[in-house]
Design brief:
Helix content is 38%, strand content 26%. It is α/β, with parallel strands linked by helices. It starts with 7 loop residues before the first strand and ends with a helix.
Length: 133
């Protein structure tokens, strides 16, 4: 594993009021759900992410991109693009990944609907880890 491929990954399933969160271990072998972040918008979400970066010693952020079935970016998702621009200023690697179907898979995994967004972030991260293995 290259040095750039080490360190924890923070996975985000970004919403307008609630964002799902998952974190990998430093060896990037396992993924763990974290509590969802409830926020009023990007500034509040960015502050919460900064706290996670420090607390968890994150080296990479993985942001789920909401593509439509036709392959284009889903409508009204400018807040995600703006968040990605802000995240890139934090001196941490930022990657994006297609998140189509993660919410559907997550809903099938959990009987607690309040966890669906973090489950989706977990599915996204687990998929990323499998692809990169």
């Amino acid at each position: 594993m290259k040095q750039a491929d080490k360190g924890k990954i923070l996975s985000l399933d970004v919403g307008t009021k609630k964002t799902g969160v998952a974190v990998s271990d430093a060896e990037r072998q396992m993924a763990f759900m974290r509590p969802e972040i409830f926020h009023a918008g990007n500034p509040e979400l960015l502050n919460a992410i900064k706290e996670i970066l420090l607390r968890e010693n994150i080296s990479t952020i993985l942001v789920g991109m909401p593509f439509s079935l036709s392959g284009g970016l889903a409508v009204n998702k400018n807040h995600i693009l703006e968040l990605i621009d802000d995240l890139k200023k934090l001196k941490v690697e930022v990657k994006t990944m297609d998140e189509r179907f993660t919410s559907k898979i997550a809903a099938g995994r959990s009987s607690i609907s309040e966890e669906d967004d973090s489950q989706a972030a977990l599915v996204l991260l687990e998929t990323y880890l499998r692809i990169k293995a």
